[in-house]
Design brief:
This protein has about 200 residues and is mainly alpha-helical. It has one domain. Helices cover about 75% and strands about 5% of the residues. The chain contains 8 helices and 2 strands. The chain has a two-stranded antiparallel sheet. Strand 1 and strand 2 form a beta hairpin. The radius of gyration is 23 Å and the shape is elongated.
Amino acid sequence: MRAPSANKQTAGERLGRRLFPVAMTLFLYIAMNSWLALLPVYGPLTWQSGHGRVQLLRGAGTGVTLPLALVSSLVVQASGLAVLKAAYLGRFAQAGSLLRGKWVLGLVGLLTGLMHAMNEFARLLSFTFRLFGTMTAGEVLIIVSSFLAPLAFVLPFFGLELMFGVIQAAVCAGLTIVFATLAAQPEHSPTQRSQSGGGV
């Protein structure tokens, strides 16, 4: 199967072919779970236990947002390591100037590495809460509107949820491709900038 041209234009020929299966898997998994949660069997089927009624079926989308975000983050880190090798790890620990006695550049490098690590963690949280919020809001909207209004009023919301499921799946798959592509791009450290054009 050939990767789409848009994927190649974003990530390049070689990296695009590696990212396409993961991105398409994320897209299909998120979209399918968003749509399956709209089926009527996911709400009424309950089981009476000693602690009350337990819902037997629930959409997997809201319960696996963190694992999906971790998969996306691992793909991003693996892409950076596969293309840049050890130079990618240097983004998170730019302390070589401290060992050579260049204190200002060393501190800037440490702060830059810390910012890279915080950026990756923020992406993980953003991915998780964006996906969770979208899927949970859709389920709550359908449940509440079905109790308060007749079926004819609720049907348009089902159409919106089908559309939002595709959009959210495309956003998550697209962000994974973009972040993985950015991770595979070489960048200049403060030490390299000083060597190429003046230092501190």
